[in-house]
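User: Structure tokens for both sequences below?

Assistant:
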Amino acid sequence: MIAVNSLRLRLLVGAVIWILLALAAAGTVLAALFRAHVERRLDAELAIQLEQIAAALERPGTEKLILTHQPSDPRFRKPYSGFYWQVDNLEGPIFRSRSLWDVALRLPLEASPDGQVHRHRISGPEGQWLIALERTVTLPDVPGAYRVLAAMDETELIAAAAAFTRTLVLSLGVLAVALVAAVAIQVHVGLRPLHRLRAGVAAIREGRIKRLEGPFPTETQPLVEDLNALLQRNEEVVARGRTQAGNLAHGLKTPLSVLANEVDRLAADGASQLSAAMRGQIATMRQQIDYHLARARAAASLDVPGARVPVAPSVAAIHRTLARLYGDRELQFAIEIPADHVFRGEQQDLEEMLGNLMDNACKWARGRIAATSRRDDGHLTITIEDDGPGLPSEQQGYALAPGARFDEKVPGTGLGLAIVRDLATLYNGSIKLGSSGLGGLRAELTLPAG
């Protein structure tokens, strides 16, 4: 069963619609051309009969007008056959075909004395419509003019057109079926590379192959190359994760050894100072765990092609969270982030960087925090400021180091700014600290713009 959003279904439906529209237009034009052709042939036939009747009109000597011969077509002699002729003078009909029996045709009131053939649509002897050709004839040395008319039943034309239309509809229907079948085959063949691509992705997911191999059409080759590049990037992420895990193990080795020794000694003599040493080593271990796991997470946060995140909604969500968290301090937030400012990367990474910076500002601010952004030359710079005590210029570089803390009274691990630096560097961005116009610290986070 084909899904509603299937590309195959869309192509087939689009092709069927255009085929039906094209064949309907062609059928309409062909039917109109055929009707016009039949009308021309019937008019030509009537014109010949008209000329025969006009040529048979004579007035020998002083005698009255006679018709030397009648049209040879037997349909003019069969009553109500649908083929009729008539000759009128100023007083009315003087000659008419036997097919009219005892009925006279009503000619248009206005005569056409120019001698040209004129076409009319008049009522027939049985109330049907007739196609009539009329010509005004004058004879030498004979006063007055005579109106000669030849007519045929319009149903002859309608029947011929209907028969042709039936044949045409049947032919176009067969052609439509053939075209739809051809389109279905073409779509199946054309989408075959996508099936190969899907099968290749399934094989990669199952671990049977590592890359998409073989030639692909020009239209899908860029997709194949991007997918292979993404697979290569994922391998690099795994490698970085392993490296970070090794760093974590190395960072924990010494504190764990010391902790083990202190615990052994504490068990041996119960000295109280060893309890304090144990707590210090435990704190060191936690710092190492937090920092190295954060770096491992940052190394796995490589930007995915096509990832775009609006900055304003993320800042607004962090603002709402921090406003509740620090609700007892009545902090004032001034946020000016344009709606069209977009970060080219992962939303989780953006929110982790901004969350650390804004949380740090809330911890140190006296009452005011500002968040602004600007876009320049493909980069987005987000600035977070506060009115706290700030940092001297000589300490601003050290503040980005892991575990850097300047006031133990303020809760935290000292890893927030280091994590922001690592994530920004991963995106080829940067974090810069400085003095704020509000009196406190200013953090400028530069990232790729979407």
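Moving on to the next sequence.
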Amino acid sequence: MFAPNVVRAQGPLVLAVQQLAHEAMLSVLPQFTEATGLEVQLEGGPVSGNEMLTRYAAAFASGTSPVDVFSDADDSSPTFMRAGWVMPLNDIIPQETWDDFPASMQAHIDGFLSIEGIRYRIPHEFAVGYFFTRQDWLDENGLSVPTTWEELVSVGQEIADPANDIWATTDGLIKPALLYVYIAYLTAQAGGNVFEFDEATGEALQFLYDMIYTHQIFPETALNNDYTAQNELYMQDRVAFMRQWPFFQAVAEGNTDWYAPEKLVITLPPAGPAGSKSWIGGWGWSVPTYAPNPEGAAELIRFLTSPEIAPVLAEQQGFLLTPRTSILAVLDQEDPLVQAMALYAEEDVYAARPFHPRVSEAQTVVDDVASLFLSNQSSLSDALQQGKDLIAALDAES
């Protein structure tokens, strides 16, 4: 069981994590306070890696930190690690906790959470873009779940009614970062590397463009939508299926006046040229180097990730779910996310997250270039060439 070390009593520890996880956090933090005497103050955390950098980089660079523990994203963490702004966790997190993660996650931990074997972040979310489907809509209209890009278009055209704001599919595509997420998702299905702006990346960009403008099954307004707006559109009965992160399961179930299981069926992503793919990523806990109370922060991150507490959090919120042995042992095997995790593994859906040593800046390149093409300010060929040139410039500076 979690056994705290003696820590110096100070002011409340500040824990920054996305608002959607606060309710679950509040269910376990009293236990931490009872064990340590330390109060914890929750703060709403950023929703993207770019926002992480905007909020914290200046403070960290000046040798200060507004938080003691924070939830950090794959796309911002490498910057924080390289700059020395987060603490090594090898001596803070017990080996039994690291051993609780499956071997299949090791490459991700080594790539996005570590530098030369030193771990600076520990996962609390195993994120993959699931394909949520309104099975009730499809059944009512005698339609089948689309299994390919071509079927996504044909089925989508049976459903979409742009004049009445009804769409086949949507996503949150606002910059920064969210547009990149969806382009990388389609590029994985096309078999490309989004940071190379290769032919498959071009196929992905063209497919999204056609869904918006040619086939009119995807709202152009998505270019200005974040995930909250995307989710609301789905729960307002205006979207038939969409890619979304696992946290949406808890969001939808929390909307008790609307939710029904048949409105939220996870199916395989429609296959592009390279098959049915969705890349994995995630968020994890880190301790800033300049945390106001580093001893207390070390105890808090150890508590949150312990094999006793992590399953309690995962049962309540998909944003706090990873396929750890301790978590899977207590989860209901009938749980939709547990079943989806197994289905996607069996069907070889998981694709590696594209890596670049300056991943946040590389993602911004994808955001900007894709935005120019999708807003009709650039041809596809010019967009791809511009992307290649900007990535080459990043590589030269690395």
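User: Anything stand out in the second?

Assistant: The CA atoms of residues 250 and 317 lie 6 Å apart.
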